[in-house]
């Protein structure tokens, strides 16, 4: 049997793999191929862009309303010098502390469920958003409302999206109204915290002062009590005990934020111990008096009277500071119904669709050409 020397070996498919790395890419050939397909490269993306542009007209436009306002500002109060003159009582307002970033806190308040639920109920967003559950309505609301704080100017901007221009403006303005409501209900600023603190202490001291007065009156007057002349000693005792009470309150406030080894805590603890020692000495001198019961009642009455006077002054100062503090929200730009839509952006959307279609069509032709056997 003779062999056919002219028989050619069969080519393996891998020998003609268009993706073989050794063959490289002929850019001129690809460019020539794409040029031959220029009609499709033009018509397909143009058709996709046109259809996309037409589809945007089927989408109901969205309007965006914006309001800008200046949030309440933290200010140094006029009570600082007055508190410093009271010695140990100067630490009472320190426990309240000042807000480091009040603007961020006001943004968080407007993003709270408290505010969102009131917005949802006021504008009936459950039905508008076709939400079955309230958390779904909150999520939709958060997507349609953007609240931001300017890092440089400290202004808060509220942007609200809605299909109805009037609804968008009303929603943006309502966020400001809800923030006003919360700031009036919550003690946020330093002056508000001081006012709330002294208001509570003033009420408690007023009750205790009335009880001490009744106890003093029920004790009556006798010869021994008159000879004891407790007024001067009782007033000194009352002032000293008031300072001790204030120092103890300050020490408790410091221990909430600092350790016992902190210099401020140790210094305040030393002050409390010193005042307590003086009070013990003053008490020991008068406990053996024949009119000790009357003196004790008189001292308690003067102590509560001194506290009531101190708290009354600080309460009035706090109220004055609160009235002139940055507690009022100053609206710079009130949200008005927008005249132009914000979405959809038809030209940009159609341009993106055209670019994607052009890219996809070019890739399709390139891949199809590379797979074609040579």
TrEMBL record:
<feature type="domain" description="Polysaccharide chain length determinant N-terminal">
    <location>
        <begin position="25"/>
        <end position="120"/>
    </location>
</feature>
<keyword id="KW-1133">Transmembrane helix</keyword>
<feature type="transmembrane region" description="Helical">
    <location>
        <begin position="347"/>
        <end position="367"/>
    </location>
</feature>
<keyword id="KW-0175">Coiled coil</keyword>
<dbReference type="InterPro" id="IPR003856">
    <property type="entry name" value="LPS_length_determ_N"/>
</dbReference>
<dbReference type="GO" id="GO:0004713">
    <property type="term" value="F:protein tyrosine kinase activity"/>
</dbReference>
<dbReference type="Pfam" id="PF02706">
    <property type="entry name" value="Wzz"/>
</dbReference>
<feature type="transmembrane region" description="Helical">
    <location>
        <begin position="40"/>
        <end position="59"/>
    </location>
</feature>
<keyword id="KW-0472">Membrane</keyword>
<dbReference type="InterPro" id="IPR050445">
    <property type="entry name" value="Bact_polysacc_biosynth/exp"/>
</dbReference>
<keyword id="KW-0812">Transmembrane</keyword>
<keyword id="KW-1003">Cell membrane</keyword>
<dbReference type="GO" id="GO:0005886">
    <property type="term" value="C:plasma membrane"/>
</dbReference>
<feature type="region of interest" description="Disordered">
    <location>
        <begin position="1"/>
        <end position="20"/>
    </location>
</feature>
<feature type="coiled-coil region">
    <location>
        <begin position="172"/>
        <end position="257"/>
    </location>
</feature>
<protein>
    <submittedName>
        <fullName>Capsule polysaccharide export protein KpsE/RkpR</fullName>
    </submittedName>
</protein>
């Amino acid at each position: 049997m003779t062999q056919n020397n002219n028989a050619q070996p069969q080519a393996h498919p891998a020998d003609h793999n268009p993706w073989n790395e050794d063959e490289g890419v002929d850019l001129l050939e690809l460019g020539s191929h794409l040029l031959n397909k220029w009609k499709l490269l033009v018509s397909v993306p143009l058709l996709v862009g046109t259809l996309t542009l037409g589809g945007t007209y089927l989408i109901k436009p969205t309007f965006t309303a914006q309001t800008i306002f200046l949030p309440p500002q933290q200010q140094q109060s006029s009570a600082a010098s007055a508190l410093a003159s009271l010695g140990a009582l100067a630490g009472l307002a320190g426990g309240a502390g000042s807000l480091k970033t009040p603007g961020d806190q006001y943004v968080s308040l407007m993003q709270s469920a408290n505010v969102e639920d009131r917005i949802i109920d006021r504008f009936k967003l459950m039905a508008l958003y076709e939400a079955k559950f309230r958390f779904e309505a909150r999520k939709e609301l958060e997507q349609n409302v953007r609240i931001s704080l300017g890092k440089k100017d400290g202004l808060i901007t509220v942007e609200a999206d809605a299909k109805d221009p009037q609804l968008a403006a009303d929603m943006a303005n309502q966020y400001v109204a809800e923030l006003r409501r919360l700031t009036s209900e919550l003690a946020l600023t330093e002056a508000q915290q001081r006012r709330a603190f002294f208001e509570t202490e003033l009420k408690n001291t007023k009750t205790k002062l009335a009880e001490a007065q009744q106890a003093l009156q029920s004790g009556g007057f006798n010869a021994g009590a008159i000879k004891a002349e407790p007024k001067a000693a009782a007033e000194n005792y009352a002032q000293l005990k008031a300072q001790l009470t204030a120092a103890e309150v300050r020490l408790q406030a410091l221990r909430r934020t600092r350790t016992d080894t902190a210099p401020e805590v140790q210094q305040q603890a030393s002050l409390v111990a010193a005042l307590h020692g003086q009070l013990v000495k003053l008490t020991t001198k008068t406990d053996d008096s024949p009119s000790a019961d009357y003196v004790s009642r008189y001292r308690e009455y003067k102590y509560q009277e001194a506290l009531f006077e101190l708290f009354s002054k600080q309460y009035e100062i706090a109220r004055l500071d609160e009235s002139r503090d940055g507690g009022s929200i100053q609206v710079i730009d009130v949200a008005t119904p927008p005249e132009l839509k914000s979405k959809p952006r038809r030209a940009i959307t159609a341009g993106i669709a055209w670019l994607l279609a052009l890219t996809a069509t070019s890739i399709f032709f390139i891949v199809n050409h590379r797979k074609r056997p040579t």
